[in-house]
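Pipeline run #58 for the internal structure catalog. This entry was flagged by the ingest filter as a single-chain record with no existing model, so it goes straight to prediction. Upstream metadata was stripped on purpose; only the residue string is passed forward. Reviewer on rotation: M.T. Logging verbosity set to normal.
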Amino acid sequence: MAEETIEVAKPKDSLILKLPEPVVVEGSPWDDDVLNRAQIAARLTNLIRTQSVPFVVSIDGYWGTGKTFMLERWQKDLEDSGFKAIYFNAWEDDFCDDSLLAILGQLSESFKEGRLKELAARLRQSALPLLRQNALGILKQNLGVTLRIEGSERGDRDFIDEYIAQRATKDEMKKCLQRVSEEVRDETGHPLVFIIDELDRCRPTFAIELLERVKHIFDVPNLVFVFGINRDELCKSIRSVYGEIEADVYLRRFFDMEFSLPEADAGAFCRHLFEKFELPQFFLGLSQETRHQIHHKDFRDLSEHMVKLWARFNLSLRDIDYCVRLVALVGKNLGPGQYMHPALLGLLIPLKFKNPTLYRRFTRGECTGSEVMNYVDELVPLQDRNDSLYGVLDVVETNLYLTDKRYAAYGENTSPALAQLKLARDPHSEELTPPIYISKKTRQSDGDRIDGLIEEMQSNLNRPDYNISSNTIGYVAGLIDFYQSMVRR
């Protein structure tokens, strides 16, 4: 976006640090879909559109990959397309001890008028004996209290009768549920779709019971269940209840088909958040207000270049959201003319999430920039780098090395890393002696790349306006962790 088209920012106090939960708009649920989840939803719709047999699908994705974003909007999209679809966040009902009660409650809440309301009432009525029995079992398990309902004493009927009665209750429930799904099919031309999200975040017993209820009670024609799960976490829940069983095999029996969400475009999502937080406008306005263009320039460098590195840190979408909020916090607490040091800020923010131990060691001066660069090189191998990312990483690397100027023996206008780069460039030099101030990959690089790093470092060291020193890392960490602004006050 050209600078002249950006509106002047609001005052600092109005800069938001957290976006409100987005409202899914009826009729256009995908308006804020920057991850192209609508395409996946469209394929799912085609998959279930004509299903008439009982059908259970799982959508697998680790936390923060946008499962909930997609499933909430898909439910609205299905409704807009003439389906009857129910969205149920299982984690929000985790307080309920009986998973059957939770599902029936969602069904009843969704059918509030006409023939479906009447059928839902019959379904609730048919489930009462089983719900009552479940409640008695929960009381005994949790409180050690055994209650008897009139007419249920063992003297009146034996365990076989109890079993037969429960089977009869289950069969009656399934008949009522089938009438509901048939009514939905007759009314809409599509199966009833029940979307269950966040199952892996529930208590293990609740999650497993809910899966088993769906398998044994809700497997009726014209009813489709779609589960949003983190498969690895759900397998851990299964093992926590049943021990070291083959959780993958156990879980597979619940689903007819399983899919995985593709990785999101982290860079596109990050740029989207910069716009949503109105950060381009804010930093331009901050520069105009303080008469220091450095604020806008630093942010432009961060948003245009460092986002390419963020995309390689394998951060979840939730982590990226928090990273962008940290950028907003930094801006909120910048003083006139204060540098953000975008190359260092853009590295340390994701490092704090991806490797908090290394972040703490580096910001406390307990390790060198070369150790951080070794870690970055493992995340982004040389063979996976394009020309653009090469440039970003070279700037990051030289900035890391320049913070090692605290070693007085090397003089004011050099650094230990620069001295070792020159030794590494000399084919006749001996092996570097510890401590090592340049990364393993750089020591293995060709001469042209090392020459480029040396030239970049020397150029910056000779610039009078290039204010980077051994204190810079502590300063940037203070911006991230908020204590810099408090010290300044």
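catalog note: The radius of gyration is 30 Å.
catalog note: Residues 1-6, 135-147, 151-156, 485-489 have pLDDT under 50 and may be disordered.
status: ready for reviewer M.T.
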